[in-house]
Design a protein that fits this description.
The protein is an alpha/beta fold and 304 residues long. The protein has 12 helices and 10 strands. It has a single domain, classed as TIM Barrel (Alpha-Beta Barrel). The strands form 2 sheets. Strands 1, 2, 3, 6, 7, 8, 9 and 10 form an 8-stranded parallel sheet that branches. A two-stranded antiparallel sheet has the order 4-5. The longest helix is centred in the middle third of the chain and has 18 residues.
Length: 304
Amino acid sequence: MAEQSGFQFLLISDHFHPWVPQQGQSSFVWSVLGGIAHATKRVQVGTGVTCPIMRIHPTLVAQAAATIADMMPGRFFLGLGTGEYLNEHILGDAWPRIEVRQEMLAEAVDIIRELWKGEEYSYQGTYFTVRDARIYTLPEKLPPIYIAASGPESAELAAEISDGLISTASGDEVVKAFRKAGGRDKPRYGMVKVCWAHSAEEARETVKYWWPTSGISGPLHADLPTPKHFDDVVEAMGEPQIPEDTVLGPNPAAYLEGIQTLYENGFDHIYLHQIGPNQEGFLKFFKDELLPQLEKEELVRESI
């Protein structure tokens, strides 16, 4: 439906758990990507994002991503990040501090790129071991690797080791750090949080129920272990806090403003995160009302 509605690219999360229990579904992303490969013909698709350092070894991420890229030639990109405790602690491993996870991510990216050469590969590193591994199913064109960053330090790492940036930060600080560290000519994906509904009030209530964690950020968001813990934090907060940059309701002008702001802050690819279960209503709104406005304002450059 998103492809038919005019979107140029899609992102799909790689989670073991939802953030809060009422969100319900949290499927295995690589199975879903196989279905998406079958159901779509044009749209680009990427993980937003996969953590290749704990729950899934980088050798398996390399194989899974290569297979999906072969199933949708030229249409897949691999988004990677340092992960959240919510998903990565399930095997009982200790949760490293962010500096260690960044080192692990850099090592994992090296392993993935080596395996994508299609040759037998062994490696004994600081964090990972690979023995006699070779990936036989490879696409004709390897997918790009984009790295998620929420702050300047992670943006600098992304510029050094990846082909592009993915961020949920709406300001310009992350993009500036990424560009300064060598990412000036690389794609920069930014997110606008939206909730389409028939009224702003209906959208506000939808966000409070389905995305009450939207106001939780920083180490707390990365370090909580289960959906119940997120639930407890939401309860302790009282009334859920909706970030000011969240677009609510049916007015296309508000969406245009949010998208334009991200462009001005240096993002050249914008993804819209529709909150709540009414995806069909949002996609109809996008196709019938928002996309014509984006085309009129010349904001669609294979970027939405």
